[in-house]
Structure formats: structure tokens, C-alpha cells
């Protein structure tokens, strides 16, 4: 008993931001889902897209998830301006990518190759984030 508990300044700042943002009304007109089969909703009855449609009935939900997509493939599509017009109008973008990168590498070379794949995945994630900053000029991007 009597232990002192002090949360970090970072945690306190995040908590204040969360409380401040909770008071703001959210007007989400367009939600876009990008990524692999998990984003697509493979093996489910509508996946996250259906959940979002039910949760945000006044919003348009576009699912650009692709079965088997890797982070390399997503980077190529973003650089080729696939979906750029839609992305530029989005109020919320959900991204799920990387599972296929890791699974393929593990199948090809086991655990040691899987670990090496993380460097490539990190590089691709950075490229995706930079592409997002070009598309969403006024948005806050957290990667």
C-alpha cells in the first residue's frame, strides 16, 4: 500500500488530447479501407467494411482491400496513382498490410528469412506514409 503512481508526461498529453477530441463532433463522409485480404474481409461476412457501414450509416465506405496484396504491391499502386482521387476525398483511411509479406518470407526461408523481411516491410511502410503525406496535404498522418 501507499505506492505512488505517476503516469508519464507523454501519457498525460495523450489523455488530454483524447478528452479534447472526444468533445468534437465527427463528420466522416468517406471511409477507405486499403490493404490485403484482412482489409478486404476474406473469410468473413463483410469484414471491417460491413462493420463500418453499420457503425457509420451516413458514411460512404470503400474497400480497396486485395487478397494476396503485399506492401510492395501497395507501394506500386499508390505510386501509380491508383485510388488517388478517392483517397484525396477520404475523411478516414484504414490500412492493413504486411501479413502476406511475412507469410511468404516465412514459407520461403523460415524464421531467419522472416526476420530479414521486417526491414523491407519497414521501408515500404515508410514509403506508404510518405505517399499519404503527398495525397493528404492537410491531414495528420501517424505511422
Question: How much of the sequence is in beta strands?
Answer: 5-15%
Q: Order of strands across the biggest sheet?
A: 2-1-3
- Tell me the Rg in angstroms: 18 Å
Q: Quick one: biggest sheet?
A: 3 strands, parallel
Shape: globular
Number of strands: 3
Spatial separation of the terminal alpha carbons = 40 Å
What structural category do the secondary elements indicate?
mainly alpha
Describe the structure.
The chain has 143 residues and is mostly helical. Helix content is 55%, strand content 12%. It contains six helices and three strands. It has helices at residues 9-22, 37-40, 47-55, 71-79, 84-88, 99-135, and strands at 30-35, 60-65, 92-96. It has a three-stranded parallel beta sheet with strand order 2-1-3. It is globular and about 45 Å long.
Keywords:
mainly alpha; disordered N terminus
How would you summarize the topology of this molecule?
Blueprint: H1 9-22, E1 30-35, H2 37-40, H3 47-55, E2 60-65, H4 71-79, H5 84-88, E3 92-96, H6 99-135
Parallel strand pairs: 1-2, 1-3
Helix pairs in contact: 4-6
Concise overview:
With 143 residues, this protein is mainly alpha-helical.
